[in-house]
Amino acid sequence: xxxxxxxxxxxxxxxxxxxxxxxxxxxxxxxxxxxxxxxxxxxxxxxxxxxxxxxxxxxxxxxxxxxxxxxxxxxxxxxxxxxxxxxxxxxxxxxxxxxxxxxxxxxxxxxxxxxxxxxxxxxxxxxxxxxxxxxxxxxxxxxxxxxxxxxxxxxxxxxxxxxxxxxxxxxxxxxxxxxxxxxxxxxxxxxxxxxxxxxxxxxxxxxxxxxxxxxxxxxxxxx
Length: 223
Hints:
By secondary structure, the chain is of the alpha+beta class. It has a domain at 129-219: 2-Layer Sandwich (TolA/TonB C-terminal domain), CATH 3.30.2420.10. Helices cover 11% and strands 19% of the residues. The protein has three helices and seven strands; from the N terminus they run H-E-E-H-E-E-H-E-E-E. The chain has helices at 2-12, 151-155, 187-195; strands at 129-131, 140-143, 160-168, 174-181, 198-200, 202-204, 207-219. Strands 1, 3, 4, 6 and 7 form a five-stranded mixed β-sheet that branches. Strand 3 and strand 4 (174-181) form a beta hairpin. The radius of gyration is 67 Å and the shape is elongated. It starts with a helix and ends with a strand. Residues 85-96 have low confidence and may be disordered.
């Protein structure tokens, strides 16, 4: 039976298959790509800046000096006091002159009168005219008109400074005017105005005096 089964298997088995030849073609292998460049080296680490340390100044040590013995000052010889000056019979004034009188004024003249005015004349009446100067009070205007422009001065457009010298009396009146610096067409108008004005008298050393006073009159065109 076994043999019979083997015979049947062999008779029914398909013929063996022929193996086909397979052509194999060898190709040159491609070269591998070059390796990537190496990464750049890391940046060098910066060194931390070091701040130089400031030297610590040590406090100065104060050494107390040794006491130096002071020399004794030389003893002063006793000075004899001068004898007291004799009292003058009359009171003297600094700046006085030989032959002056007690109670006189500095700057006065020998032979003057007590109570006189500096610059006055011996034997004067007190009405002498003095030049206005230091130590005198300024005259204050009390009343009177201002100079009026004349028609001729307006047409000529006159303006500027006019200087006039006048005597101011002890009553405050204006007298004896003289024109020092004139302006055309305005002389008489200015003189008329000055003669009509009244002033507070000038005083010197507490007393009213007559003075020769300079008026500086500035004239401007009326607007």
